[in-house]
Design goal:
The chain is α/β, with parallel strands linked by helices. The protein has twelve helices and 13 strands. Helices cover 35% and strands 13% of the residues. α5 links the parallel β3 and β4. The chain starts with 19 loop residues before the first strand and ends in a 14-residue tail after the last helix. Bound molecules: pyridoxal-5'-phosphate.
C-alpha cells in the first residue's frame, strides 16, 4: 500500500472521526479552522460594530475572491464571491448583450446542473433559442457533436466543465477555441473541477468561469466565485445589480448610477459576511495541499473504486479514462437507491443521483481503506437483503 502523506490532514476535519465521509462532491468536510474564523467574525461584529465595513467587510467579496483566484489560474481582481451560482449566473446572463439578433443561439447540454438552465431560460430575451446537446450514454458528451453545435449563430456556450452526475471532464480548451473562432463567448461551471483537478482559466482564455466553495474547496455553503476575463469585464452591463456595484454608493444619488470597473461591477447588495469568513480555512488548506497532489491521489482512489466495482459486477457511470474523469465515481449496483439509504444508515456518507447511481467522492483526506470499506458495505447490503427495508419511499433530499 503506498504511503499516503495527505492523510496527515485528517485531524483538521472533525467529521472524519465520526463517519466514512465520501461526499466531498456535495459538501466538503468542514475544516476545524472554521470555528476560529466564525469566532473572529463574531468578535469583529461585536467589537467594531458598523466600523467593520470600513475595516474589511466592504471588500471581502473580492478579498476572498483573490484568495481563491490562484486555484483557477485567475489574476488578482478578476474573481468575486457571490452567494450561490443561481444568483451569480442570473447576474451574468443579465449583463450580456443579446442585441445582435443574428446570434440567437445558446449552446448547453442535458447534463448541466439544472439550476444553470433554469436561470438561463429565465434571463434570455425571447428571440434567443437554446440548443441542447444530449449525452448518448449518460456519462459523456460527444465532442464532435458539441463542437459542431457551436456555430456562427452562437452567442454563448454555457456548460459544466465537469458533469455533476458522472464527473466527465469536458474538453474545455477545444470548446473555448471553437467558440472564439465563431465569435461566441463561453461560461464554464467549475463546481466539480476547482480544488480537485487543475484549472487554468487564463490558459483557457475562457470568458466566464463559475464555481462553488462548498464542495471540493471545503468552504461551506454560501459561497461561489465568478471569474470574468479582465478584457471582457468592461463590456458587461448587469440588469441585476445594486449599490455595491456603484462607484460612489455613499453618494446615495438616486439619479445617477455609475458601475464600478473592477469585479464589484457584478455585485449587488449587502453580502452574507459570515460565509465569507467560513470559506477561507478550506481554501487555505487546499492551496497548502496543492491541487496537483490532490489530483494524483484522486486518480488513484477513483481508479480503485472502478476496479472494485468491476470486480463486483456493478455498473460504473463515470469515465474510465483518467484524463476524462474528475473526482467522483458513480456506481450502480442493483437496487442502487435502496443500497444508498442503507449505506447512510451505516454511517457511510455518499449520495444518490437519479439516472446515475451512488456517487462516491473521496478527497485528499480519505484513506484507501475507507474506499475498500464502502465497497465491501455495498456487497454486504446486497447479500444480507438489508436494502429491502428502504424500498418503500424516497426521501426528498438524496
Ligand atoms: C454543477 C453545479 N452547479 C451548481 C450547483 C449549485 O447551485 P447553487 O450554487 O445555485 O445552489 C451545484 C450543486 O450541487 C452543482 O453541482
Amino acid at each position: 500500500m503506498p504511503h499516503d502523506d495527505l492523510l496527515r490532514w485528517r485531524g483538521e476535519f472533525p467529521i472524519l472521526a465520526t463517519c466514512t465521509y465520501l461526499i466531498s462532491n456535495s459538501l466538503g468536510a468542514m475544516p476545524r479552522g472554521v470555528y476560529d474564523r466564525l469566532y473572529e467574525y463574531a468578535e469583529t461584529w461585536a467589537t467594531l460594530g458598523v466600523r467593520a465595513w470600513a475595516s474589511g467587510w466592504w471588500d471581502l467579496k473580492s478579498t476572498v475572491g483573490d484568495k481563491i483566484a490562484p486555484l483557477l489560474g485567475a489574476p488578482r481582481g478578476s474573481v468575486l464571491v457571490h452567494e450561490n451560482a443561481s444568483i451569480a449566473n442570473s447576474i451574468l446572463f443579465s449583463a450580456l448583450d443579446f442585441s445582435d439578433t443574428r446570434r440567437n443561439k445558446v449552446v448547453i447540454s442535458d447534463q448541466d446542473f439544472p439550476s444553470d438552465v433554469y436561470t438561463l431560460r429565465a434571463m434570455l430575451p425571447s428571440h434567443m433559442s437554446i440548443h441542447t446537446v444530449r449525452s448518448r450514454d449518460g456519462i459523456t458528451l460527444d465532442t464532435d457533436e458539441l463542437l459542431a453545435a457551436i456555430d456562427e449563430r452562437t452567442r454563448l456556450v454555457s456548460l459544466s466543465h465537469v458533469l455533476f452526475r458522472s464527473a466527465y471532464i469536458l474538453p474545455a480548451q477545444a470548446i473555448v477555441e471553437k467558440a472564439h473562432r465563431v465569435g461566441a463567448q463561453v461560461l464554464l461551471n467549475g463546481y466539480h473541477s476547482v480544488g480537485v483537478i487543475p484549472v487554468n482559466v487564463t490558459g483557457l482564455a475562457v470568458d466566464f468561469y463559475i464555481g462553488g466553495t462548498l464542495k471540493w474547496l471545503c468552504g461551506g455553503p454560501g459561497g461561489v466565485f465568478l471569474y470574468v476575463r479582465p478584457d471582457v469585464l468592461p463590456t458587461l452591463q448587469p440588469k441585476i445589480t445594486g449599490w455595491f456595484a456603484h462607484q460612489t454608493p455613499f453618494a446615495f444619488d438616486v439619479e445617477h448610477f455609475a458601475l464600478r470597473e473592477d469585479a464589484y461591477r457584478l455585485a449587488n447588495g449587502t453580502p452574507g459576511i459570515a460565509s465569507l469568513y467560513a470559506i477561507q480555512p478550506g481554501v487555505e488548506i487546499i492551496k497548502q495541499v496543492g491541487v496537483e497532489a490532490i489530483r494524483d491521489k484522486s486518480l488513484r482512489q477513483t481508479a480503485l473504486i472502478i476496479e472494485l466495482a468491476d470486480r463486483a459486477g456493478y455498473g460504473v457511470f463515470s469515465p474510465r479514462a483518467a484524463d476524462q474523469r474528475a473526482g467522483t465515481v458513480t456506481v450502480h449496483p442493483d437496487h442502487a437507491y435502496e443500497v444508498s439509504r442503507e449505506l447512510l444508515a451505516r454511517n457511510f456518507v455518499i449520495d444518490y443521483r437519479e439516472g446515475a447511481g451512488i456517487r462516491i467522492a473521496p478527497h485528499f483526506y480519505n484513506s484507501d481503506d475507507e474506499i475498500r470499506q464502502v465497497m465491501a458495505a455495498i456487497a454486504a447490503i446486497l447479500d444480507d437483503g438489508s436494502w429491502q427495508q428502504h424500498a418503500k419511499g424516497r426521501s426528498f433530499v438524496t
